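FORM 12-B: Structure-to-Sequence Request
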C-alpha cells in the first residue's frame, strides 16, 4: 500500500468548523471500529460501560462469563469473545429515553428510567408494563451495535456493514510479543484537552516537538531517534530508540520491572508508538504499555483516557509500584495538551496559513493523508 501523504498541514477550518466535526462523526467515527477501552472493564457478566461514539451513546456489556481458553495466546481474538459481549444503542424502544445514565456499572437487566421497560443483557425486551397481548416484545429489543475483542481491548462499530474487526487485526503490525491480551491496568487518568482530536493525533505522531516541550522525555529518548515508519489501512507508527543507559520511559530512564515475557532484544532499548485509527494511541515499552483513547466532544474539545498496562504477575506483587511510569506519562500528557490547546487557538485564526511539514513529521503527514481520504477531500 502506498499511503497518501498530505501535501501540507491541514486547513484551520478542519479543526474548528462544527459542520466538519459532524461530518467526521459520520464518515469516520460512525463507520470505523472505535477502540472502547480494556476488556477488563467488562470482566464479568453484567458489567457494562457506556461510550459516546459519533454522537451516539452506546452500551457495551458482558453477557456471559469469559471463556477461560480465550486469549491464551495473549492476543484475544475478534471471534473468540464476541459471543460473550453485546453492545446496543442506548435508546429505549418505547419512546426513546436513554436507558442507562451511568458511565459504567454492573446490572442484571437494563431498565428504562421512564416507563420501566426492561431489557435483558442480550438486549431482548423482557418486561413492558401493561402492553397487552397484541404487542410483540420480540420486535422491540435494543438496537444492536457491533462489538469485538482484540488484544485485550473491546472495539465498537456503529456501522452494520464495513470491514470486520478481523480485517483490521490482519492489517495491524504483529504485537503479539507484548502479550497485550493478558496485560492488566495499573492506573488510569482522564483528561479534557482543549483541542480538536486530530491535533492530538498529529501531536502523537511526531517527536519534532519533544526537545522543546518534553525536556524530561528528551533526556530518555532523543527526538531524533525515530526508526522506520510502518503504516497500513488502519494504522501508522514506528519505534523510537532510547538513549544510552535507558531501558524504559520514566524520569530516570530506567526501571527494575522485568521485561514483558516475550519481547525481543531490540525492544529492550526502544519504544514502539502506533496510532490505530481513529482513536487509539498505543505506546509499547519493554516493561509496560501506555494507551490513550480519544473521545471527541466537539471541534475544539476532546476527552482523553490514558491507561497504563502491566504484566499481571508484576501487577499482583505486593510491592508493585507503577508510579514511575504513571508520573512520567502524566507529565508528558499535560505538556502535550498544553501545546495542543495553543495550536487549537492558532488554527482558529484568520491569520493561520499552514506551510510545510518537517521531515520527521512523516507519520503525521500519513495520518493527515488518511484523514483527507476518509473525508473525501
Ligand atoms: S421511554 Fe423507555 S419505557 Fe418509556
Ligand atoms: Fe508530545
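FORM 12-B RESPONSE
SEQUENCE OUT:
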Amino acid at each position: 500500500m502506498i499511503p497518501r501523504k498530505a501535501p501540507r498541514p491541514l486547513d484551520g477550518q478542519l479543526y474548528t468548523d462544527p459542520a466538519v466535526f459532524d461530518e467526521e462523526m459520520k464518515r469516520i467515527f460512525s463507520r470505523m471500529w472505535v477502540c472502547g477501552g480494556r476488556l477488563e472493564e467488562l470482566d464479568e457478566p453484567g458489567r457494562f460501560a457506556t461510550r459516546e461514539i459519533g454522537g451516539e451513546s452506546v452500551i457495551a456489556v458482558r453477557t456471559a462469563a469469559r471463556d477461560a481458553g480465550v486469549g491464551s495466546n495473549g492476543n484475544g481474538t475478534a471471534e473468540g469473545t464476541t459471543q460473550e459481549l453485546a453492545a446496543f444503542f442506548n435508546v429505549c424502544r418505547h419512546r426513546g429515553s436513554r436507558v442507562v445514565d451511568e458511565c459504567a456499572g454492573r446490572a442484571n437487566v437494563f431498565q428504562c428510567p421512564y416507563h420501566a421497560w426492561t431489557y435483558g443483557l442480550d438486549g431482548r425486551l423482557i418486561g413492558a408494563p401493561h402492553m397487552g397481548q397484541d404487542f410483540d416484545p420480540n420486535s422491540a429489543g435494543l438496537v444492536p451495535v457491533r462489538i469485538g475483542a482484540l488484544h485485550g481491548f473491546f472495539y465498537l462499530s456503529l456501522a452494520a456493514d464495513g470491514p470486520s474487526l478481523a480485517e483490521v487485526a490482519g492489517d495491524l503490525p504483529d504485537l503479539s510479543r507484548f502479550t497485550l491480551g493478558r496485560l492488566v491496568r495499573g492506573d488510569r487518568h482522564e483528561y479534557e484537552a482543549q483541542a480538536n482530536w486530530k491535533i492530538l493525533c498529529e501531536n502523537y505522531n511526531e517527536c519534532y516537538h519533544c526537545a522543546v516541550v518534553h525536556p524530561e522525555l528528551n533526556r530518555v529518548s532523543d527526538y531524533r531517534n525515530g526508526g522506520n515508519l510502518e503504516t497500513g489501512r488502519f494504522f501508522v507508527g514506528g519505534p523510537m530508540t532510547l538513549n544510552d543507559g535507558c531501558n524504559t520511559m520514566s524520569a530516570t530512564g530506567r526501571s527494575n520491572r522485568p521485561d514483558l515475557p516475550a519481547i525481543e532484544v531490540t525492544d529492550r532499548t526502544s519504544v514502539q508508538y502506533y496510532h490505530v485509527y481513529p482513536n487509539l494511541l498505543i505506546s509499547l515499552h519493554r516493561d509496560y504499555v501506555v494507551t490513550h483513547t480519544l473521545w471527541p466532544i466537539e471541534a475544539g474539545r476532546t476527552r482523553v483516557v490514558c491507561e497504563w498496562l502491566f504484566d499481571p504477575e508484576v501487577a499482583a506483587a505486593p510491592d508493585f509500584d507503577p508510579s514511575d511510569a504513571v508520573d512520567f506519562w502524566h507529565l508528558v500528557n499535560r505538556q502535550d495538551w498544553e501545546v495542543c490547546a495553543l495550536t487549537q487557538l492558532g488554527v482558529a485564526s484568520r491569520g493561520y496559513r499552514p506551510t510545510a511539514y518537517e521531515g520527521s513529521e512523516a507519520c503525521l503527514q500519513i495520518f493527515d493523508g488518511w484523514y483527507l481520504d476518509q473525508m473525501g477531500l
